[in-house]
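Dear Dr. K.,

Following up on our conversation at the group meeting, I've run the structure prediction for UPF0434 protein CKY28_07305 from Sphingomonas lenta. I'm pasting the input sequence below exactly as I used it, so you can double-check it against your construct before we proceed with anything downstream. Let me know if the numbering doesn't match what you have in your notebook.
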Amino acid sequence: MSLDPWLLERLCCPLTRTALRYDEDAQELVSEAAGLAYPVRDGVPVMLAEEARPLR
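The predicted structure tokens came back this morning:
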């Protein structure tokens, strides 16, 4: 399932306020600045830091 480009353009990391990169294979929105990957469940981004996966 892909993420709507319009939505992706408007979303940002809730911690750093930087742009996110969508990883379609992992179904995650990646914040390189925060070092976190936010899950996308059933096409809905879960933008909660406590739900994010650390990248390192």
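Two things stood out to me. The two ends are 25 Å apart (CA to CA). The chain has one domain: 5-54.

Best regards,
J.T.
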